[in-house]
Protein 1
Amino acid sequence: MVKIGVIGYGYWGPNLVRNFNNKNFSRVTLISDLSEQKLLKARATHDVETTNDFNTLINSEQVDAVVIATPVFSHFELGMAALNAGKHVLLEKPMASTSEECRLLIAKAEEKGLCLMVDHTFLYTGAVQKLKDLVKSGELGKLQYLDSTRINLGLLQPDINVLWDLAPHDLSILIHLFDEDPVSVQASGISHTSNGIENIAYMTVNYASDFIAHFNCSWTSPVKIRQMLVGGDNKMAVFNDMEPTEKIKVYDTGFEVKSDEDKRNILVDYRVGDIHIPKIEMKEALAGLAKDFCDSIIDPTRTPKSSSALGISVVKMLEAADTSLKEGGKAVNLFK
Amino acid sequence: MVKIGVIGYGYWGPNLVRNFNNKNFSRVTLISDLSEQKLLKARATHDVETTNDFNTLINSEQVDAVVIATPVFSHFELGMAALNAGKHVLLEKPMASTSEECRLLIAKAEEKGLCLMVDHTFLYTGAVQKLKDLVKSGELGKLQYLDSTRINLGLLQPDINVLWDLAPHDLSILIHLFDEDPVSVQASGISHTSNGIENIAYMTVNYASDFIAHFNCSWTSPVKIRQMLVGGDNKMAVFNDMEPTEKIKVYDTGFEVKSDEDKRNILVDYRVGDIHIPKIEMKEALAGLAKDFCDSIIDPTRTPKSSSALGISVVKMLEAADTSLKEGGKAVNLFK
Amino acid sequence: MVKIGVIGYGYWGPNLVRNFNNKNFSRVTLISDLSEQKLLKARATHDVETTNDFNTLINSEQVDAVVIATPVFSHFELGMAALNAGKHVLLEKPMASTSEECRLLIAKAEEKGLCLMVDHTFLYTGAVQKLKDLVKSGELGKLQYLDSTRINLGLLQPDINVLWDLAPHDLSILIHLFDEDPVSVQASGISHTSNGIENIAYMTVNYASDFIAHFNCSWTSPVKIRQMLVGGDNKMAVFNDMEPTEKIKVYDTGFEVKSDEDKRNILVDYRVGDIHIPKIEMKEALAGLAKDFCDSIIDPTRTPKSSSALGISVVKMLEAADTSLKEGGKAVNLFK
Amino acid sequence: MVKIGVIGYGYWGPNLVRNFNNKNFSRVTLISDLSEQKLLKARATHDVETTNDFNTLINSEQVDAVVIATPVFSHFELGMAALNAGKHVLLEKPMASTSEECRLLIAKAEEKGLCLMVDHTFLYTGAVQKLKDLVKSGELGKLQYLDSTRINLGLLQPDINVLWDLAPHDLSILIHLFDEDPVSVQASGISHTSNGIENIAYMTVNYASDFIAHFNCSWTSPVKIRQMLVGGDNKMAVFNDMEPTEKIKVYDTGFEVKSDEDKRNILVDYRVGDIHIPKIEMKEALAGLAKDFCDSIIDPTRTPKSSSALGISVVKMLEAADTSLKEGGKAVNLFK
């Protein structure tokens, strides 16, 4: 049993605690939060000790691994302290405020031989696993585009813009599904508040091959849309997360381009076929994440699905998007 | 009765002829096309004369006004010839291949005192008129964003990219609804064919005030989406053109931003209210366009809804998008 | 080429004329209607002769087969006259006002060796053909139920109730899909007008085997629903005719009943699987009907899909429903 | 604070306990169940005492009111015992196995001056309260029909048919919305199991005025539908319980019947107007029910919304439906 300490018992913390408190592979032994009221609630719900000092938690012998569910600006400091104390670390997404912070965390984890992972929960949903299967098996064919819309009425956050809040979900799925390293990122957006933090933003990720990814994020839409299109040259999958069960729809529709000698003459043959709605396994994604984390602690040769490498890639793209936003939307290169 | 000559009897021409052939204000007297077969079909359906020489049509005394429904590259030559021959002109959208061509056409029409109009049909639909009412009456409040997705399986065109094909619809609606001149345009996209012409593209239009417009266009999606969000600080309207009758949904939902002295502390109050689906008048949009054109011929002081000024604005934004696509997505200024 | 005469050029007549006027197997030579204006319209659209005397049409040597698209009360008289004149007959649905009339028409057609058919157009749609394939191939398994809802704002008719207007579509599909003879019919309903003719009605068709069919028909619903569930013990198909293309959805979901010795203990194992949306061929159903009629004229050994046997079965069930409505909803037996 | 004892801690019991355990008006003091494991779970979750003997609970001084959440066949015995012990009683729906049992329970409660109520939870949902408002305010006009479809894959129950399981929800809403006493009930259905208990059934409720109600219930549909149409002569409301938030849609569409002297000539004028989706208050229905029960205990002059009178009416209609099923669907009168 991996003994887990959880820092931060706000919105997401209780879900993490519930899933790490299982009978199979882990147990939450200690929870820390600055709010005494939240700790009271934690103790009322779980058989657990609490502290309002995260250092106590990080240095506790009752803790093998630290789960950090605090605002992103504190990830680096807390994560570094935990790694230095010899604890495995799971960070809430996004991994940290800058890619440099991510790089230092990764280096430290490697140095210490500890597991460092990021909570990109979506990767553990039945829907994303089905998408991965569709890509991996070659059913979609060669990937051509990923286009995601994630908009609704969201809490405007004072320190991060809408891309840092919403896009990590989509970016983690993008990296999970499409292996190639992106070349550049473009972004545009707007702030409707006086603090200049974008509440609506659009982001394009470009690749050397003929693949493109686009993200539409908004905190300001009364209509809630959670829709991702993943198009291949053979089939196309739509992931509509607002559907209670029919989340993935696979369109057996493609087109074949035939150009004759005159390059300008493009002949396109469309093929319209059946649509398939595969059964999606309904399971709690966080349970899969918790297991992946603990498995990767026990077996250090194992790379978890939501790895630190994936985590830093997400942050690099968000950083590039910020730069692009500041520089009028121009393509910002992603240096490896 | 305005006597109409129509050049081009391909995909859209027959619809134009049907709507200009009415008992109230206009009659189609002459049709020209290079294909004898199409002219045969025209004569079989309508009581009309035909010619395969557009010059004959342009110079015919049987023609007061020329409707040009040919590929965009020919709009300038044909439009100029018609204006020079003293005919009023309606051009299929987009108005011409470059804004310079548009400018010259507008100057010629002014010089000759002739009506020059562009066929942005959408402006005459019941749905767009309802959107205009919602904006004009102040019901939506101060406009904050317009976000449009127009994707499906489309015919890849050999000479123009997907923005020139699909975005004119949305850009014309944007200009119709939102009065302010845009400042810059950003675009990103990809070509999946060897000719390098984008079949998927994204476009952002920026403004001096805190309004933003975004367009997502694709010829490569098996899922057909025709959805536009028009958000104001009071209400938000969704225009879903795939709905047979319930095309407009108005969300009485908004948020009020309250920042205290510390600018970083943004407090947002959401208000979630009813949804309203106004009845949309079902009428043929082209009939309204035909009437607007003829009315504007008869009364030279009248500015048609789908004016040449609107037409050139659309082309300027498409030109800027092309430049942005070539220059890695950077914001391209729209000089007046 | 079969020479066709069409009686009745009202709502449906023009569609029939267009589909029988083809280059392959038939030609409309003569149209009759009581309204001179409608005949004028017919002559303007088609190269056809017209008459306002149906007797002239029935006895014309220019006519091999008569298509009767008049109100149902006139079907018997017109059909009988045409058969007596040696013409093949296609009757608009429902076949006639009573099953006795149907019986006499069938007897006359047999006596004369002529083709007698009913226009149950739905049987020729791609969607119903797909349903038939799903049943015939055994994919759905043993059929257990058919449940149809066909409601919207409809024109209240002065001489027939909502079941006679709307249910023939569903009943013809029922007979086409499920071979067994029904045992009895129950119906309930209500009239919201002073003439006592039901504008809302419900109808159940019972069978000796454990299959049941149910129909919900209304002229009084602002919501338009056209939905049919066809359930087998293996899979279930939903036919939603309001969907533009995705009309058929096949649910690979079933249940297996396991009763142990104590009959009251029913154990049910549910199996929830994928959903499949087969591609439906988009074609004009009336073209298929026209071809079936002409083929059956040319080859007298052939039984058309929408046969007179199917036509009389539909009328028998409607008659039984009327009786049930009058007798408080009790099950009315269908004697063969 | 009303002290509540709960008998039955199975599927629904925990929800009842959670809602009666509040800080405002009631507290659960005692829970009884035959399963020791369930009682263990109850004690782990709540600060409550438990017993496996319902008699202990019924006679406990710690209990003012008994909530009975056991299978329907036991409602009468348990309810009677509780009333005889001087306790107020809330019965899970349906109230009892027969209307005679309901009658005896009501008589006993009256004799003892105790509150007797049935848990028709739906009456306390925001959606049904909105429907009630629409009826009461006259917005829908004179009610003409109620048509409900409640189908999905459900657990086939060994002792009651699908109507007794699913229809109580709809029947309670019907009675709540429409005041008139029904005249008769018709039903049809089928059993796909060897025990002869209907898993699919249809039910019509007839009235002296021109109102009709129809119910379509199934445990055998892979498609889950929860849809109710409530039509008035002014507007029509659709209640779609599968929608997460937009549950009620009000169609401002109606028709006016104008008959001229000849009664057969019905002229109908349709009016198609806007659609309105009112905001529904999202609240836990059971909390409202718990409060209504406690309020009615404290104030004996108060009639709760989900009264015993409503409860017996539901059972009378179900009984009549059973009789109709046995007698071939004929209309079974509901004697008062």
Note: Chain D is about 30% helix and 30% strand.
Protein 2
Amino acid sequence: MALTLFELAGDQGRRFSPFSWRTLMALRHKGLDAERVAVKFTNKDVIAFSGQDRVPVLGDGDTTVSDSWAIADYLEQTHPQTPSLFSGTVGRGGAKFINAWTDLQLHPRISRLIVRDVYDSVHPDDKAHFKETREARYGASFDSLHETRDQHLGAMREVLAPVRVALEDQPFLCGESAAYADYIVFGAFQWARCASPYALLEGHDPVHAWRERMLDVFGGFARAAPGYPV
Amino acid sequence: MALTLFELAGDQGRRFSPFSWRTLMALRHKGLDAERVAVKFTNKDVIAFSGQDRVPVLGDGDTTVSDSWAIADYLEQTHPQTPSLFSGTVGRGGAKFINAWTDLQLHPRISRLIVRDVYDSVHPDDKAHFKETREARYGASFDSLHETRDQHLGAMREVLAPVRVALEDQPFLCGESAAYADYIVFGAFQWARCASPYALLEGHDPVHAWRERMLDVFGGFARAAPGYPV
């Protein structure tokens, strides 16, 4: 069991990739340890062996798996005796939908709010690359995105409405205890928490209470990561 | 096993309620029959016994259950020997999220496109009530909503993106065969199909192919319902 997780490196030990957080929580869920290797945006040669340039990448002996969803499937298949991430094909189907929804609907709205803060947390070697690519994506400077972000906070909170409803009668998206669908959505908030002091959620929001529960699981594993306690 | 399903009545035998379709498919999934009783918008006295005024309502002997989600839970609990709708709590959690997403994100966008057509399919006794309440909701006349609907088609197709991604590697949202999460999203399309000739989906859309599969399950049960084959 020599697992290695290649994940995005930030400044001062910050590891803010939401996709890596999905995998980190999945590994904890299954009680698996992995050596964590930090990869900079501008030094993707480290993961060239994976045949692509995105993190996370999981190495398991001679096997290499990239993409957080594929890694979850791989862990589920190779460690069937450990607690399940999906609890079968129906649960996997629901998680797959939530995965796509998080990527397509939630991440862009959180990114709009924290991108300048993420820039501050990016590794010094990566700052020029990050600024160029992200400002081009938005067609705006980090400063102007930052100054106008309060106008976009409501839209992010509104898109969370299905999460709020799903938590009405259960403490976690997956029911009485957390599983992979929770880790997917939580990854988005942990991305923000590791990189930004901006308060995304109001204290009375059920999503806030759920995030607190997620920070507590696995002995406070995610809470212990360098970040901002908002 | 004397089940009765109270569902919204349309004109000429059309039963277009998306919520009733969730329950109709769930009953088929479990191999259960129910007497179907049509209820008009303007004659909710028929379901006054349920203590509220929305359909579907399921009657099971002395037990009354309203709200499609509560009905699914009830069927799952009272018929544990039949095929499961959720396959456990994790699957139920994913379905709950998809239920909320469908209600909050998908239904409003489909409604915007078909509301004038739904009006045409509403029972004659209900037309005045439906027109008044729906035009007030939109702040616009049915005619103007109808004339401008093509401008809103793209937004509906775009919000389906997570469904499209979820279907990339499996024929149904729930995996190899359909279950409750599929019925939730399908209910929205069956609502449209029963009431509107408007083509919501392009032929090459994976969501279109999935809808065809859904129309085929249970021996073409949903396909046989009066509607428009688009």
Note: Residues 89-220 of chain B form a domain with the Glutathione S-transferase Yfyf (Class Pi); Chain A, domain 2 fold (CATH 1.20.1050.10).
